[in-house]
Amino acid sequence: MLYCDTVSCANKLSSGYGLRATTSELHGNACAAICNNGSNGSVTGTHNKQVIRAVLPDYRKTETSETTKNKRLHGKLNKVVLAYSGGLDTSVIVPWLRENYGCEVICFTADVGQSIKDLDGLEEKAKASGASQLVIKDLKEELVREYIFPCLRAGAIYERKYLLGTSMTRPLIAKALVNFAKEVRADAVAHGCTAKGSDQVIFELTFYALDPTLKVVAPWREWDIKGREDAIDYAEKHNVPVPVTKKSIYSRDWNLWHLSHEGDILEDLVNEPKKDMYMWTVDPQDAPYDPVYVEIGFVKGLPVSVNGKELSPASLVSELNWIGARHGVGRVDLVENRIVGMKGRGVYETPGGTILFTALRELEALTLDRETMQVKDTLALKYAEVVFAGRWFDPLRESMDAFMEKITETTTGSVTLKLYKGSIAVTSRKSPFSLYRQDISSFESVESGNIYSHADASGFIRVYGLPIWIRAMQQRSH
């Protein structure tokens, strides 16, 4: 309908928005003025309006814009910042937010070292889904320096295997999301974490810690979509391009530290992961027949160099990723306890991280005494648990981190490892602060001067074993 040089459409987009545009604006695929406040005002100028170019989905008839407003199921928001990856979940969340909250959706993507392919075309995809804009922020150096390296120094490994690749990254993304939401004056943030996973907890505890007044929208806890196949159907219905099909619906998380795989055949624990599932590391059987040696330098418990070359934190991890992946290092198949109480299975590829953890443990064997190492290992378990549970900005983690920083002041030196077909073997360790003394430990030296005499062992054994001797004598008397 043409009225006063304004085209008004009595229909509405499937997202629930009215469509109005001047005739001069109708060019290209479509150019629409979206009234985010639900008003029925016409578009007569360039002020106070938002014109977006998008591929329009099918129309559905409605009586009035007021009816559309009343059909929104979850209230009204003005502007929402979505943690956006371009994957299945976040792709369908964009039109869902617009349809159910009548809001402008701004997508925020953290560049944390995911595949370049994951970032290509991301802006076009976000806008085609209905977002007003996409902002990408490079967080790779901050991720490694402020999150990964502290966990490495602490020796934090969750449930014996998991090197916390996702758990360390989510607090950084959530922090950046909060800061960006403040910049654009958004009244809410949204994420695509499922209601069965641990990620939702990590995101929202970070939101609580940094801005408890910020509204959080978690579509997986609100919408009618029951699983990933439903999400694919929703995407197809709304003409949203997604990178998965119903034949292959692995849920993946890729960052500079690791690549994780969940879902699909992995949910049945009897299934061995398929060879073509792995996207980063070479199958150990196909790895080179010649081993490679890599030397890693540390200063105060933090890695600083690879093969004698000093590198930035992100560059160092990237270099070790390349070396480790080529030799099939870093694959883990893990059944873990999620925060929400259930168990889940994940397969992880962490080539550089596996190399670093191995090297640092070997160096600490030189620089830490027995009691210190035992306390550190005990706290490392708690540190990993706290990080996995999303409590990065908790005073407990910060206090443990201060302990780890202090206790590793002398953990300086280098370790050389041999990588061969998925295995790692240590070949050399050295440190200026090493507590190992060859002149004392050697079996070849009969006497070690005034430091240790073989005769000292008799008195030590008698004193150390006194409780055992007393108990045995007491039992014998009865």
Key features of this structure:
single chain, 478 residues, alpha+beta, Rossmann fold, Argininosuccinate synthetase, chain A, domain 2, 5-stranded parallel beta sheet, 5-stranded antiparallel beta sheet
Explain what the structure shows.
The chain is an alpha+beta fold. The chain folds into four domains: 2-70, no CATH class; 79-251, Rossmann fold; 252-430, Argininosuccinate synthetase, chain A, domain 2, CATH 3.90.1260; 438-477, no CATH class. Helices cover 37% and strands 21% of the residues. The protein has helices spanning 65-70, 88-101, 116-119, 122-129, 140-154, 165-183, 199-210, 228-237, 313-326, 351-367, 370-388, 395-407, 438-441, 456-464, 466-477; strands at residues 2-3, 6-13, 18-22, 31-33, 51-53, 59-61, 79-83, 104-111, 133-138, 188-190, 215-217, 251-254, 259-262, 292-299, 302-306, 309-310, 331-337, 343-349, 413-420, 423-430. It has a five-stranded parallel β-sheet with strand order 9-8-7-10-11, with helices on both faces. Helix 2 (88-101) packs across helix 8, helix 5 packs across helix 9 (313-326) and helix 11 (370-388) packs antiparallel against helix 12. The chain is elongated. The protein starts with a strand and ends with a helix. Homotetramer.
